[in-house]
Amino acid sequence: MHTEVKHPLLQHRIAILRDVKTDCKLFRELVGEITRFLAFEALRDLPTEPVSVRTPMGEAAGAKIKGHVVVAPILRAGLGMLDSMLEILPYATAGVIGMKRNEETAEPIPYYLNLPKAWPDSYVVLVDPMLATGGSACDAIATLKKNGFSKITFLNVISCPEGIARVEREHPDVPVFTAAIDDRLNDHHYIVPGLGDAGDRLFGTL
Ligand code: PRP
Ligand code: URA
């Protein structure tokens, strides 16, 4: 299942994000802001438990988030989304998944993994700004499942039909929330029109 989150506040930021003239500092700020909007939509079903809160005026019935929330960025570019997620989920833990695409084949090569313990009530929010062939996302999801995580939601900024189809085929239980579904992949496995290489734009390594 996938959802393209459409909102003028998001679309405005994505237009600036894509712009080849947008510098590194602004690019980082925009990825952070877009992540907050995406999370607001994607985490509607985050489990909660009822609580009662004493206000200066009396008792209020409320809800607090239940369970162990884990934010899992795919390195490098997923790091651009991590701080925003931890700002809105300050009690969450982070699990890091290092992966680098082979430039010829686009096959992901795993190089680092550090995950917290998986609990029965763990809820993972996997983050990566780009969903191209879907290889990195699918491998990351398979790794999370192998390590005991079963409830996983994927947040992404720019995707394309090929990547979405692959995640839906290999991991139909993982909802994908994306801010834009672009036209296609080019011969070098880059999203068109996309925004170029998200990691390079975030970290200034162009
Ligand atoms: C990019 C991006 C995703 C992946 C998407 O990472 O951040 O992780 O490519 O492509 P895919 O859907 O075809 O797997 P990259 O491997 O370039 O590493 P980087 O973030 O370190 O630049
Ligand atoms: N990774 C990126 O950073 N950009 C793309 O277009 C595809 C993969």
What does this 3D model show about the protein?
The chain is of the alpha/beta class. The chain has one domain (2-203): 3-Layer(aba) Sandwich (Rossmann fold). It has six helices and 13 strands. The protein has helices spanning 8-18, 24-42, 79-88, 135-146, 161-170, 198-203; strands at 2-4, 48-55, 58-65, 68-75, 93-94, 96-101, 108-114, 122-127, 130-131, 152-159, 176-181, 184-185, 191-192. Strands 1, 4, 5, 6, 7, 8, 9, 10 and 11 form a nine-stranded mixed beta sheet that branches. A two-stranded antiparallel sheet has the order 2-3. Helix 1 packs antiparallel against helix 2 (24-42) and helix 2 (24-42) packs across helix 3. Residues 77, 130, 132, 190-191, 194, 197-199 line the site of uracil.
